[in-house]
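Data availability (excerpt). The following record was deposited with the supplementary files.
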Amino acid sequence: MSSLVAPLNEAVAAGQTAAAVDAAMIAKLTDMAGDFAINLTLAVVILIVTVFASRWATGLTRRGLSRVRGFRHDPTVLSFAVQVVRVLVYIIGFIAVLQRLGVQTTSIIAVLGAASLAVGLALQGTLSNVAAGVLLLVLRPYKVGDVIDIGGAAGSVQRLDLFTTQMSNANNHKIVVPNAKVLGDVILNLSGQKTRRIEINFTVGYGEDLSAARAVLAEVAEQHEKVLPDPPPWTGVTGLLDSAVQITLQAWVKSEDWWQVQADLMQGGKEAIDAAGIEIPFPHQVAVPYGDEDVMPVVPVRTAPQKQRRGAAGADAAEGNS
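Predicted structure:
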């Protein structure tokens, strides 16, 4: 009987030991689950605080820079600085979340430091855009609101980001250009100056009075209310073409009036030249005959005296009918 009691006691003792181990394991798992739940809750709270902190920091940065005289009316610097502050706050918050979740951020930083060369080579295009954005902010070749032309893409600058420059053209198309391309290409700032010069080329016939044509064009520019008097409008013969003489009209206007005044002067110059009876030649097609036939133009052309005689004849006929 005693031989049976001993094994039974051993089995009971082993069962009690296993039960104790299971209870300890369950308690430990419970504690770990509780700690993880607490850390997860705190991580979510930190993430929410990070979002609000980024908004507060960006607002504080915007208000602070708005008080600086040099940046007060410059949205380019404001938007760039606000974006940098927002990114920094999110990075700090992300590191705090990882630490709260038990991730060893020091080891992550060490790994990133070891892999920085590979990451830099893989992201050299992106990093070059960031560096170019910083240089554009320092050099200031343009600001938000300026009309610029970069490699044939022209538009009004909407914002300067860390990676790109965003523009909007006259058709309201959104144009996004990487900062590295902007810095490496020719930047033509069309509105960088307060005034701009309009230059329009007109052509008149070789038999016309060039001085009279120049006077007519100069008068059109002088009478326009948005043409600046200083420097005064200028006209001159700038080319002897195959079938016409080129006369150039130059006038200075404010940058914001350039497009409309150019259209007005082009239309007004054409109408004034026509009203003065000055011929504006245009290409003609000529039929080349075979044999001894005379060469006749496909499009009949009337000279100024012929036009006057035709007009006088039309007036006489009208009087006779009346």
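Summary of structural features: The chain has a mean pLDDT of 77.
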